[in-house]
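Complex 268.
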Amino acid sequence: MFRNTIVAIASCAGMASVTLAGGTHVLADANSTATFDTNTGQVDWLVDGVNQLFAQEFYFRRANDTQELGVNANNLNLDGIFTTDTNPFSDNNVDALSQLYSDGNGLQIETIFTLRGGTAGSANADLAEQIIIRNNSNASMSLSFFQFVDFDLGGDFSDDSGDIINGNTARQFDNDFSVSETVVTPSPTAFQMGNAVAMSDLLNDGNIDNLDGTASGIGDVGWAFQWDFTLAAGEAFIITKDKSIVPAPASMLLLGAAGLTASRRRRS
Ligand SMILES: [Ca+2]
Ligand SMILES: [Ca+2]
Ligand SMILES: [Ca+2]
Ligand SMILES: [Ca+2]
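Predicted structure with calcium ion bound:
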């Protein structure tokens, strides 16, 4: 009954801070913009006018769930959403987004994104992310939490390739761009890189899935991280990570998947 009910979670004295309803929200900073949809997740990330990202979505699985569920307003209550301008002396654009979801049973998931663009034409941008998962119930709670991301660098996927190193850093390249994501803390329980559509299907089908440790991919690359943990009553689990887009290093051009032909089934 409370699904999609919007409650303003804060009123901030900052001059550019606002409370907003669910739907689509756009962050902007310097040469970059990023769009987030409360019904799915992040739906684009433009750098110098080129969209680099097809999707970023979070999923969760509680002890009694029989499949993974998306962290969005279709599966959880959206309790609040908040945007703010964290560098108001640089511009007047909102560049940070906080969203608060809960399951009505003690699980609360807060996601915070902060966008920093680079100078025009630099092909540089950065997205800092923090996810706070709280157990507000009176009993311990076992959870699996997933991050799924599907970059299509340079606006296309056929020339992309990537790998995961050290269990906590994902890298993806094409002829023009490179993106890396480092999980600052805590290290994931599992990871997987592979065909983005197949990986999205893993997280959206009706079965329980765990990531298989595949550490590289080519073509329509996507990747995911998984964290398994148990929260005591009142405890929180905090994931901090950062994504950075830069121009492709020349040494990585050889990884380009020349000659790949692919037709892609886009998700609705
Ligand atoms: Ca700003
Ligand atoms: Ca590409
Ligand atoms: Ca599944
Ligand atoms: Ca991709």
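The two ends are 26 Å apart (CA to CA).
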